Structure formats: C-alpha cells, structure tokens
Amino acid sequence: MFEDDPALLFRKEFQIGSKLRRARVYVSGLGYYEPRLNGEKVGDQVLDPGWTTYSKRVLYSTYDVTAQLKRGCNALGVILGNGWFNPLPLRLWGHINPREHLTIGEPRVIMQLVAEFEDGTVQLGTLGFTTRFLGPEEFTPELEALAEGESMPFESGMVERTSGDQLRVSYAYADLADSVTGIRGRIGRQSRATGGVLGRFDGLNLAYHVTERTLVEAVFGKPAYSSMEGLDPAVTFYGVSADFQPFFENLEVGTFFLQQDIEGIRDRQVVGTEVRYFGPNQTLWGMIDYDLGFGEIASGFLQGSWRFPSRFSIHGLIDRRGSPFMSVGNAIIGQPVLTFAELTSIFTEDELRQLGRDRTSMSTTFTLGVSYPLSPKLQINVDASQSEMEGTPASGGVLATEATSYNYYSANLVASSLFTEGDVTIIGARYSDSDTSQAISLSLDSRFPIGRSWRINPRLRVDRRNRLNFDNYEWLYTPGIRIQYRRSQKFRIELEAGRQYVQQDAALLDNDRESNFFNIGYQAFF
After folding, report:
1. Contact 443, 455 (CB under 8 A)
2. Alpha-carbon span 438 to 473, nearest angstrom
3. Residue 170: closest CA among 220, 221, 97, 235
4. 92, 174, 485, 512: which is deepest, by most CB within 10 A?
C-alpha cells in the first residue's frame, strides 16, 4: 500500500441460525486482499492474489471457514490493498514505469460465502463492491436461504458491468521554463514524493535556483487519488520546499512546509526535512515529517546501503508511518456517510481531528539484507523484515482494531550464465510468521535464452501453510513453465501453463484439490 491510495476496510454482519455442516468463502480481487471472519484472518496466505495479466485472467481463492463461523451473529470483512493492480509510479532501472505497461485501476474485490446446514439448506451471500478512496462506493451484500439443491455459481469477473470505455488519466502535464528569470515548472496531472506531497495531484509545481546550490520549489494543487475518478474537489494543498545541492560533497539536504485543507478544515500541516547521500559505495536517504496539527511525527524513514571492497554489500530500512497517512480526512473511515462535508455537520473540528487520529494506525518496519558474490556467476542474498502495526481505539461508532505483527525472512541463490550465456537460475527459500499463521516456501525459477528471440522459464514452488488459531495446514505444489517469443523490443508473445496440487488437513475436513492454469497473450509497445 502507499499513502496515495491506502488500504480499504470493509465489514458486514450476518446471522447463522441452523446447525452448520460446512462453509466456504470464495474471494477474488484486483489488488491484494486479506479476508477476515469474526475478527480472525481467513487462511494464512499473504499478498493474495498472485500476479497475473489482469486483462486476461484473475485468480480466486477458496477458504474453508467451518470452524470460524458460529451460531448467531457473525461478521465478514476484508482488507483491500493496491498490489500490482495499482502500483507505485516507480522507475525501475531509472526509466521503466510499471504503470505504463500493466493493466491498472482502482483496487476491487468480490466475495461469496456458501454455508451448508445439517437440514440440507444452503445459505449463500455474494458480497460484491467497487471501491473509492477511504470508503465504499457500493457495499450491498445480501444473504438468502436457498432451498435444497439450489445453487449459484461464483463469478470471478472484477470489471463493473457497464458499457463503453473507461478513461484513466495517470499523467497529463506540460513543462514550463522561463529563460529570462530561470523559473521552471510543471502544470497538470503529475506525481511527486518529496516536499510533503503524497503522490499524484492536479496542480502547479514551480522551481527556482536561488544560487547554484540552492533550489526553492512551490507547489499548489488538489490530490488525484484515482486515475479514473480524478481529483478530490474538497481537498486543496500548498507548500514550499528548499533543497541544498550539495550541502557537502555527495550530500543533499532539504526542508519543507505543506498545508492541506479539507472542506475548510486543516487536514494536514507538516514541516519536515530530507537528507540524501549518494557516494561511490554508500547511499543514505532519510526523511522526517512532523504534523503541527496532531503534534507528532506523521512519518519518518531512513534507508541506506554500503558496498565493501570485497563486494559484500548490506542494506537496511527503518520506516514508521501512519496507515493510512495521518490526516483529519481519515475521520470518514467507518462512518455511514459518503462525503467529508456530511461529517462536518455531525462533529466539531476538534472531534474530527481526534477521529482522524483514531483511524490512523502507526506501522513500524525494520528491514536488513546482505548480498555477497560467491563467484562471478553465483550470488547469495539474505533478507529479514519485521513489521508491527498498532491497534486503533473504538470511537465515533467505529470498532477498535487489534495490533498485529509480521516477520519475513528470505534467502536466495542467484546463478548467472551457469549453463548457457545469459541464463539465470534462482533458488529461494522464504519463511513468514504472523499472529495467526506461518508459511514456508521453497522455489526454483530458471530462465534460458534460445537464440535471440525465445526465452523458456520453468518454475517450481512448494509451500507449507499453517493457521495457528485452528488445527489445520496445507501443502501446495505448483510446477509451471513460461515461454516468451520476442519478435522485437516492441512486440512479444507469452505462453504460461502449470498445475497446482493442494493437500489440506484440517481437524474437521480434508480438502485436497488439483487445478490447471494456461495463459497466452501478447504485448505491444507503441
């Protein structure tokens, strides 16, 4: 997730009246999802669904939730994040923006609960909704008791059933420059991740070199939370920043001030500083953002790397920030309204500020990794990460959330040109541990070039997942192969095929299953 589009939370209560025989939940989404039932995580997968070419195929997961349901009132919910359907506007290798090459859009999810009872009846509910920033546009689940033998198929299509084209505008700007004054700028839809700005916005950014080493910038605009729905007319921000380049050799220092208003109320008012060091063998980048309205640090991080003469390298990250990013606008989360303006007629400004803080969970992440080349063809990488997310209190009619933690460890061995020139083989192992589950994964991923046009990519992955709150575990075996034909740099054809075997052992029910997948498609760059 990222501040521009924070994770969304959905929850719905329903009744179970009869003695239960079996129950399953089917979930599919564009963006990562985490289903929850009665306050507990459903399943032990993380970062579901797996990445696919979303314009052609979307995966769905099936969970046995018999042990998690109870007679009486139950609550089914889901946490929905961005994933690869709404990635950050990063620049891979300095020039490739994933958003320009992937099928992207707003995260969305669909769920279906099927409960079978001892008396033969089936209770079925399809929970389908599309999403908007910080709240559901549509969330109307219905549960119906069906007669014995009646069924309803699960639909995995995630595109709204509307006709016509969908227009997405990720970037649309013009660069400006005045040769007389030296002022330069950019106007239109753009993105910025410095100076307190949180990603994409519609507005104006101006820059002026006061001296050769001092750059001053001014920014004004409205956040554009979605490339499909456009800007938020209720929110406006303005700010100034100064960068000293370099402050010392290879060291850059910056300061900033930014204020953001929502419906005439101060949403964010932050001051901060940034430090960037790029040496021949060391890098360091840090930022701290202090919110004057809340009187506390809204976010801060420090990340760096060090490469030693032996070619051994180490990298690390310390990150603490609000999730979603700290703002008064977070007060709308969980409220039965569609706009922030409606909240201003219910709560005072001080109450809205407190509700906004109550809906903001502070997350802290520590990451440490090392890399070492064993030989010109072999390199080993080891990474460890620990994340903790604080709980949030109950207030304004919204229930409290519990604190969570997540640990992740991985190691992989990368072999290059081991068999033929240009081949790559990666052997990997991963272990994850959360409050409710544990998972171990082993993988083998190879890529072999054949001539100038063909690439063959055989893969194998084995997972063992254990849900701690319930007496069950499952093994997953997933062999597969991907074949790519690259006619030129601007046109390629890909074929992917594989099979998945699942062995599940639960206290009440075993659910072994097998499935095949096949995908063929092409990419053309214009």
Report:
1. no
2. 9
3. 97
4. 485
CB of 99 within 8 A of CB of 87? yes
- The answer for residues whose C-beta is within 8 angstroms of residue 441's C-beta and 6 or more apart is 428, 429, 430, 431, 461, 462, 463, 464
Name the token pair of 350: 């001080």
Report the candidate in 43, 36, 25, 41 with the shortest Cα–Cα distance to residue 114. Answer: 25
- What sign results for the dihedral spanned by CA atoms 340, 344, 345, 347? positive
Beta strands in 118-158 (DSSP E): 122-129, 131-132, 135-136, 142-146
CB contact at 8 A, 257 and 270: yes
198-255 tens-digit pLDDT: 888 999 999 999 988 889 999 999 988 665 555 567 899 999 999 987 767 788 899 9
Report which of 31, 200, 28 is spatially closest to residue 128, judged by C-alpha positions: 28
- Structural domains of the chain sorted by starting position, each given as residue range(s) with its CATH number in brackets: 8-146 (2.60.120.260)
Q: Which residues pair with 207 in a beta bridge?
A: 184, 217
Distance between start and end Cα atoms, the chain: 30
Give the 3-state secondary structure of 18-64: CCEEEEEEEEEEECCEEEEECCEECCCCCCECCCCCCCCCCCEEEEE
Total length of the chain = 526
311 conformational bin, left if phi > 0, alpha if psi -120 to 50, beta if neither? left
Cα(407)–Cα(430) distance, integer angstroms: 11
pLDDT digits (tens, 9 = 90+) for 259-309: 999 999 999 999 999 998 888 888 898 999 999 999 999 999 999 999 998
User: Is the pTM of the predicted complex or chain greater than 0.85?
Assistant: no
Strands 8-16 and 72-80: antiparallel
Contacts of 149 (CB under 8 A, 6+ apart): none
Write out the E strands in 172-223. 172-177, 184-192, 199-211, 214-223
Instruction: Give the bridge partners for 96, in sequence order.
Output: 92
Residue type, 19: K
